[in-house]
Amino acid sequence: MQKLKLVLPALLGLAVVVAMVFFFQGEEEPDTAAAAPASQTGELPVWPVRADTGSEPTGLPPTLGDAGPESQLARIFREIEGRNLGNALQLTESLLQQYPNYRLAHLIKGDLLLARARPLQGFGALNGLPAEQVNDLRAEALKRLQAYREKPPADYVPRYLLQMRPDQRYAVVVDTERSRLYVYENDLSSGRPRFVADYYVTQGKLGADKFVEGDKKTPIGVYHVTADLSRQKLPDLYGNGAFPINYPNEWDRRQGRGGSGIWLHGTPSDTFARPPLASDGCVVLTNQDLEAIRENLQVGLTPVIISNSVDWLSLDDWARERDELNRSIENWRADWESRDIKRYLSHYSREFKAGGQDYSQFAAQKQQVNAGKEWIKLELKNLSVFRNPGKEEVVVVTFDQDYRSNNLNNRMKKRQYWLREGGQWKIIYEGAA
Amino acid sequence: MTTKSLFQPRFRALRALAFGLSIGFAAPVFADNLPDIQRLIRQGQHAQALEKVDQYLASRPKDAQGRFLKGLILTEMNRPADAIGVFTKLSEDYPELPEPYNNLAVLYAQQKQYDKARTALEMAIRTHPSYAIAYENLGDVYAKLASQAYDKALQLDGANATTQNKLALIRDLISTSGKGNVRPPAPTPAPTPVAAAIAPQPKPAAPAPTATVVATTPAASSPAPVVSEPRPAPAQPAPVQDSARDDVAKAIAAWARAWSRKDMKGYFAAYTSDFTSGKGGRKAWEEERQQRIGDRSGNISVTYDEPRITIDGDRATARFRQHYKAPGLNSSSNKTLVFVRTGGKWLIKEENAR
Predict the structure, then answer these.
(1) pLDDT at A44
(2) Class assignment of domain A156-310?
(3) In the CATH hierarchy, which fold is given to the domain comprising A314-432?
(4) Active site annotated at which positions (chain A) (predicted)?
(5) Cα–Cα distance measured from residue B336 to residue A214, given in angstroms and rounded to the nearest whole number
(6) SS3 of A293, please?
(7) Which of B154, B155, B229 to mutate against chain A (most A CBs within 10 Å)?
(8) Do A106 and B153 touch (CB under 8 A)?
(9) Residue B146 is nearest to which of A103, A113, A270, comparing CB atoms?
(10) Is B219 in contact with A119 (Cβ distance < 8 A)?
(11) Residue-range domain boundaries for chain A
(12) Do B152 and A106 make contact, defined as CB atoms within 8 angstroms?
């Protein structure tokens, strides 16, 4: 399976570079841990585009996230590049009519007005402006323009969404490097995730991959929303509402990750948007975007998968990976039913650890229990399979388990973490979800 | 915005009115009243001036000059709302006059309504593209708006932004005759046209074009002043010369235009205050030119071929072929104008024809 990251089509690249010249005049990006390395080199990674056609991605659903200011910003910068500063100012002013608190638009307006008194010198051109804030706004503009110019192609899906359970109507995927949140619909008719919309987001001040409390980073992993907090119950900082997620999850704890209180939430009333790196680890949307995704979020159900750089798979590769995992899960189920303890335990990693047991303790216990079984009937329902972002090949498998046997019946919601070891998927953790 | 929409449909109809107005000025019938009022204004006797102007307007309620003075008086009396009312009405009735727009802008700017000020000034410039004061005011308003935008963008404390240039109020309604306040045309289309258009004349002591632009349009809000532009080193005189040459070219254009329009104020303003033709003093020369130009009937046209300009410090020589047309006289001659730079302006010190 190949990861696809091709080079920018030449023309698109040129447009980006022209825009970058405007942004990067004079100053450097702030040197923070999470600043996207791609932006600093001036070479932006692009969505995987089919090498055989080389064409731009087409056929995206019409709902794609053009509701935000990205398209207008793109037009404004096009006018600036074309030296049509009057048009640019007009567009900026109409953008401000739409979003009166939009600081980035105010900054551009300042530059364009200043340009009437002297030649335009770049972004945040007035000397003596606080560099940090100007850099924040520049970073936001870059992220938004990049997102506008590089839409995910229609026939690729985020690798993480391998299988959603039928009642999971939507999934949220966050790409921290791109400062972008994608909403996918669980399209039951085609059995695959369908792109709905994408939005600009803010992450932790120091980027992604949270490890300890207070590190001002956004966690990477597979989570779900656990509550829907309305505006009335919250300080203004959280804007129109908040959706806590279950960080740290079982996998995080196993790896010693700490901290808490990671939410998706809105924006305070004094600004339309926040810089790309600004929160204490939360994922922040503009209030209008929060309202837009609010109806897609089901408490306790909607997966929120945060990655520092989303991997996209072609539908073929995606289907292959999904089938492989489904087969592994089915084999595990069947082997448990078979009461062949060797075959059953072969699905577990030697690194297995759960409920205070390591692999040998777990194996011993299972062996003992298995001795009393005359028959086992095992059904799995509402299966979901999500790949965990990151270098290790880990998937999160959740299902409703209906276990019946000669001496015990039990129903539970179970969650397993499967790790790919030597070409085989092995269970490394399991427990009640 | 509102002024704009009011203005557009009336433009054509009122062109004739404005023309009538300029004829009206010259007629001596008003002379006994308006100068009186202007004198009262100069002496600071605003209440009296207001009384007089109201009397004056009682019989001529539409009179532009009288209404303009009334607006000025109200402004001086610190009655901005009333003054705005007068100038607004005047600009609606005479949308071709730039002065009411300009003064409206000044009043709006005093009330920190910079967007309205900007609209008014843009109207003034639309009606009179060469209106220098409006350009300068607009530059200040743009800078002010820019600093407001920066304040909003970066959540700066706007309180320190009050060190703003006071905009210039126009005290005379003179645009109808094209006198004064006339800005020379920009020589070349710059990539940022407006920036070029509002660049003031270089200061004599610091002949660095970009630096003067910045220094004279302070973007008021930023805590640090915007003067850190590097000035060109003396070792590179070329850009300075170019800009001086442009300025001289503009001065020639302004001089020829004033002459063509019989704009005596503008024409005399093109010369140094001690310029004479050699016969008699300055006064005699002015009288002679007044007779030959201002009092001549019929149209005058002064055009010229591309001048050759040489710059030597604050002194410039321009040689060109001049084409003069007037009823009964068409002539072409070789002309040499010697300019000196005085107070940032290039003025004619010598004029020779062959």
Answers:
(1) 30
(2) mainly beta
(3) Nuclear Transport Factor 2; Chain: A, (3.10.450)
(4) 265 (proton donor/acceptor), 282 (nucleophile)
(5) 78
(6) helix
(7) B154
(8) yes
(9) A113
(10) no
(11) 10-149, 156-310, 314-432
(12) yes
